[in-house]
Amino acid sequence: MLRLHMLCLLLAALPGAAFIKPPHPQALCSLSGRLTDSVTAEPIPFANVFLFQNQTQIANATTDMDGEYCFKNIPDGTYNIKVTYVGYVPKEIKKVTVKAGVKARQNISISTDKGVRLDEVVIVEYAQPKIDADTKSGSVVTRQEYQSMQVKSINSVASHQQAVIRGGRITPGVVFIDGEKYNTEEYSRMNDNEFKSAKRDPLSTFSIDVDKASYSNVRRYITQGILPPADAVRVEEMINYFSYRYEAPKGNVPFSIHTEYTECPWNPKHTMVHIGLQGKQVNLENMPANNLVFLLDVSGSMDEPNKLPLLKSGLRLLVEQMRPQDKVAIVVYAGAAGLVLPSTPGTKKEKILDALDQLQAGGSTAGGEGILLAYKTARDNFDAKANNRVILATDGDFNVGVSSDGDLTRLIEEKRKEGVYLTVLGFGMGNYKDSKMEQLADKGNGNYAYIDNILEAKKVLVKEMGGTLLTIAKDVKLQIEFNPAKVKGYRLVGYENRMLANEDFNDDKKDAGELGSGHTVTAIYELIPAGSNENIASIDSLKYQQVSTGALPLSEEVMTIKFRYKEPQDTSSRLLSQVVLDKKIPFTEASENCRFSSSVAEFGMVLRDSKFKGKANYASVLALARDSKGKDDEGYRSEFIRLVEMAELIKH
User: Fold this and answer.
1) What digits encode the pLDDT tens for the residues 178-191?
2) Residue 177: enclosing H or E segment and its boundaries?
3) Of 3.40.50.970, 3.40.50.300, 2.60.40.1120, 2.70.98.10, which CATH number belongs to 2-110?
4) Which of 39, 123, 268, 297 is 20 to 30 A distant from 168 in Cα terms?
5) CB 4: neighbour CB atoms within 10 A?
6) SS3 letters for 466-506?
7) Which residue in 159, 158, 112 sits closest to 139, CA to CA?
């Protein structure tokens, strides 16, 4: 009930929300005041203030960073004021009189609910009631009371009956149970693609993936001296973090297609098909205007150097690249959602940067309400000829309001159809919610990146942002048909959460990945040659029908690759097709693109300890990466080699 109540209040508060000191002078307020904590006398920002007359709500406002609220143009009369804020007892002030020509002022103080201030609750220990040793203070709530507050889910520690909430600030998201530290980062469970029989399952269908978050997140773990959890390693995102030198497309097709058939470096008994797509590069001066909405998480969990401060530094780099025709608005969310900067052209960079500079972290995480307001802002400023996009930056820890994965993805899918896409930027550690953020980006026709340092911010927000903002082909799907006369079994390396049903390939209503200007996409299939005595998981023979391979024994075709894509403004897809012939080349003669991407694939399988890694190990990854590094002007491939060296040292 509390969550529903807070959702209603937050949604009602959207039009008046503000997170920086409002521009209005007090002289314009018919009724104003300051909201403070009854114990500390500190101002309370982001609180909801409602104005009633004769039991009818006639206005609402949100307190600013100084705790100030303001109602303008209030007619003469007597009013009641009601104040609500998560973690505090609601308070109502009755019979406040407003007279013409007289500025009415009503200061209000409110008390915490049961003495627990819940602007950002961090559970540090589940135990019997006791005084916290560090702060000499502590507040105890029962599990039932805690759950009713709807601040964070207890998740794996739900069996504990009481929670000691530390009065001071510690690292958000880090949980201590009986004195032992736990990490609350969340990753979706992922199992490696299995080998399938080309005879019984000749079709493999998947959506492209241009996300790169997994690689930079893996890098964050390794540079901190820790190997990443297996579910944090998405091999296709690691491969696609790097650019490859594929030949540019020709004619009217927005991307070129490149294939190589060679030996599999981690399993000499197998072969491999390497598929590369190269998106058309559109010059910056020819790109349409960008209509952007920055949706920024400024909740308490973002109050760390590698979160909000890094986010602000990265966005400054992006703002400096804005053209006069580009526009940006800024929506932030914490205890509620607020518009801190209306849509502003690129000619007013100082105004945009000033709004960024004033942002501070504090409050709970009303991510759902922020998304609603961001999309409303994007639609209010929608330009059919522009790139309309919301850029969400957060640690993913939504805990107030519309925050269920189902609710959020349905909302984002609906807005995607209206022409507003979503880019997701992840920050931080300890309570990072990778699984939710990847899902949101996938449903929003957008991309997902993880930013662990300022150089990555520059890569994502400056070097690659032009391509990210300009979609040249949407709903790009691949379907491969294998010839059983040449292939006994196959498996796609990575792309586990991008697999599609075979019938989805021809269904234009089925969403798939987007390809941006200049983007490359790489995929690798590992093949078991026909005639191999290797066993593949099989089913019993069918009783009522016979299965025919339909293979052409004399055909030199190993596989046929079909591509479907839509032009950015189209609703009907276009079909391309390309054949891979049985002209296998030695792996040593494969292209640099093929060999380096194979080294990254090997590294991902080693980190995941995949049962399909074959003879791959850190030494083989290093040898292959060094041999295929090639031209490396920006140093990303050299960094990859150092990362593998570090991982090997950590392992041993």
Assistant:
1) 334 445 677 888 89
2) strand 175-177
3) 2.60.40.1120
4) 297
5) 10
6) HHHHCEEEEEEEEEEEECCCCEEEEEECCCHHHECCHHHHH
7) 112
